[in-house]
Amino acid sequence: MVPLDILIIGAGPTGLTLALELAAQPCPPTFRIIESTSIRSGNSRAFVLQPRTLELLARHGITGRFIERGRFNDAIRFYSKRAFVHELNFGEAGMARNTQFPNSLMISQADTERVLEEALNGYGVVVERGVKAEKVEQDEDGSGVTAVLKIAGRESGEEREEARCKYVVGCDGAHSVVRKTAGLKFEGGVYPQDFVLADVKMKWEQKSCLSFFFGNGLLGVFPLGNGIFRLIVSRAKERGKEDQPTLKDFQDVVNEMVPGETEIYDPLWITRFRLHHRIVDCYRKGRCFVAGDAAHIHSPAGGQGMNAGMQDAINLAWKLASVLRSQSADALLDTYDVERREVGLKLLNGTDRVFEMLASSNPVWLYVRNTLISWVVPWVMSNKTAIQNRSRFISQMGIRYRESPIVGQVSTWKGALRGGDRAPDGELKGPEGQRWILGVCRGVGFHLLLFSGMADAAVSDGRLEEMGSDFRKDGNESVKFHKILSTPAADNNGNVDEEGKVHELYGFKEPGYVLVRPDGHISFLGLLNTMDELKIWVKK
Fold it and tell me: Looking at the domain that runs over 72-106+192-274+361-376, which CATH code has it been given?
């Protein structure tokens, strides 16, 4: 049996993103992606793509497909005891700066999965549905993995298959088989509150605003497009009450908490659920990895979970591909846990705090919250610095890996950016018109940005061409380099930073360089006269 390079278990947003990243590699590894369910669910709890996720998906040229199916948020509104309290306009607040995607995109998980799967199919890769992983075993000598798969047959009922692979990635959710059979701990707990959810049509004027209503509990109203709204209600758990809620139950809550007369009708999905908050003790064990809900589950506060999972996949994919091509040592794969588990912990802690503040069922806290909210919310929302810091968390633009062993900067670097930071986006003028840096850095490889510097310090287009070509000849043929000029070149080649804003974003008055990783984070940076340090760095 010829082993696969990678078996991906689970075809939700995380597994599909991982498969897409692998399929897009110049020399893609051999892999399969399996999913236990026979058809994609039309229901979904996740319904937000954050700006950072949209940026990373733009590397595949598919963000337009998501935008066609979704709706950008304009604002968030707060109400208490049926009275309007405050509105925060996302555009005015500058929720996410220096990006093509300043706001979150409301889109159903089903549509997110549909777009990802269509893009994956474009590479000739098909999700194997109705295939369930029953057991995953690593060889005692660490040479490979065997997965026992149960396949739903059309006539013979069920059959089993053994799949051999070099690596397994569990994207199989909160009840992950990979996590359990690998012996990984899933530490955390269950929130005490009871939650009910409904996707309904609603006679409601705020069709592009998120709305939160405080009173005897919490009601969140989220526009999903096409006249459909998601209602999420949190209240203290009622002992012995486990029956499914009805449309009337939701109408009663709306009547109690929403000002005016608001009718809900035509329910698409109604359910009751409990929420967990957990994180795995390690994202890797030998040749087994976990990602997405298999590695971390959060409260829905801020719409972080699905986005974190998709970014887990993007972080892991290029590392697996590099190791399988023998371009990197196995130790590179350890940095997946180093980088992403810290992110998972921060998201877990951050969403916990917000969630407890919003959804606590403690009667004393409810009284204090409902009494003070009309003063506290406007005061908090008037602090633009605090709002921008918070929005960096929610948008996931603030994620960075500065402590990772595979990022850095030259020893003499004094700029604000550091290795491991998100590579800032910005507008440039190219031969074909306006473009963004992340549009220049398309694809799933490394990119070297060469900055000419500003004013009298600037070097010529020819000098940057020479430096880029020299770097590639030094064993870095797979790295694409891009010239960012402060003035147009004689042949109109290169990307021009006419107002110097991109140079300023990166901290370059003098000529400089930035090596950008496949996942859009900075690998290494410095001034152009320190290129020799970069050449040494990439050989480590």
Answer: 3.30.70.2450
Considering the segment(s) 4-70+107-188+278-355 as one domain, its CATH architecture is 3-Layer(bba) Sandwich (3.50)
CB distance 143 to 286 below 8 Å: no
Using DSSP bridges, classify how beta strands 194-202 and 228-235 pair: parallel, antiparallel or unpaired.
Answer: antiparallel
Cα 392–225–195 angle (5° rounding)? Answer: 70
Ranges of each domain in the chain: 4-70+107-188+278-355, 72-106+192-274+361-376, 427-538
Decide if 325 contacts 22 (C-beta within 8 A): no
Residues 6+ apart with CB under 8 A from 115: 62, 65, 66, 69
CA 171 to chain CA centroid, Å, is 14
Q: Which CATH architecture has domain 427-538?
A: 3-Layer(aba) Sandwich (3.40)
Q: Do domains 72-106+192-274+361-376 and 427-538 have the same CATH topology?
A: no
pTM score above 0.85: yes
Give the DSSP letter of residue 243.
Answer: S
Q: What is the pLDDT along the chain (540 residues), one digit of tens a residue?
A: 678 999 999 999 999 999 999 999 999 999 999 999 988 877 767 889 999 999 999 999 999 999 999 988 878 899 988 889 888 877 665 566 788 998 889 998 999 999 999 999 999 999 999 999 999 999 999 999 999 999 986 555 578 899 999 999 999 999 999 999 999 999 888 877 778 899 999 988 777 788 999 888 889 999 887 888 999 998 665 555 567 899 999 999 999 999 988 999 999 999 988 778 899 999 999 999 999 999 999 877 667 889 999 999 999 999 999 999 999 999 999 999 999 999 999 988 877 677 666 666 667 667 677 777 777 777 777 777 777 777 788 889 999 999 999 999 999 999 999 999 999 999 999 877 888 998 889 999 999 999 999 999 999 999 999 999 999 999 899 999 999 999 887 677 779 998 999 999 999 999 999 999 999 999 999 999 999 999 999 987
